[in-house]
Predict the 3D structure of the following.
Amino acid sequence: MKRLIIICEGQTEIEFCKDVLSPFLIKKDIYIQTPLVKKSGGGIVPWTSLKKQIENHLLEQNVYVTTFIDYYGIPDNFNFPKWSESKIIVDKSKRMDLLENGMHLDLKNNPRFIPYIQLHEFEGLLFNNIEVFDQHITPNEFKTREDLINILDQNPNPELINNNKETAPSKRLQNHIIGYNKIVYGSILAESIGLTRIRNKSPRFNQWMNIIESI
């Protein structure tokens, strides 16, 4: 049995890991643990603090470590490796690649560390198909169902839904679903979508999963 520690930015990511990732990975002989970002008790922290937590986990023998944090909301002064250099890269997927490479380099290319930053945030993975929303959201809970359909149609790759205070994936869900609670709905919707469909529409997430499966 291989052991993988997934450092999660928040409770939403933890629930997703437990409900969706764990049942899939356990079949591949990979057991996961899902601690929160320690310094904040959940929520992104400066790179120096996150790096220290990663290094402490890597002190354990025979364990792999990865991160499950959102690009959305990371401030410039948190000094993630190659952050300034990344800002000039227009292609967001390539920007994430550079940041993750920088994280890996700063951990001395430790082969047991798998850096991952979710583009733009976890909730982007939920913009997969309207049928799943219909299964769990009653008609009177939708503020604007047609607008939600338009978002799905306009974003075949939901990871690219933009990084903005008003239009980030989580903000859109709050705007279109009355009483949307990210912790409650996030894992439920993701579980209904299923890992296969999430991977099919979210190439960076799928790439992360491919690496995890290969450890």
The longest strand covers residues 63-70. The chain has a mean pLDDT of 95. The radius of gyration is 17 Å. The chain has ten helices and five strands.
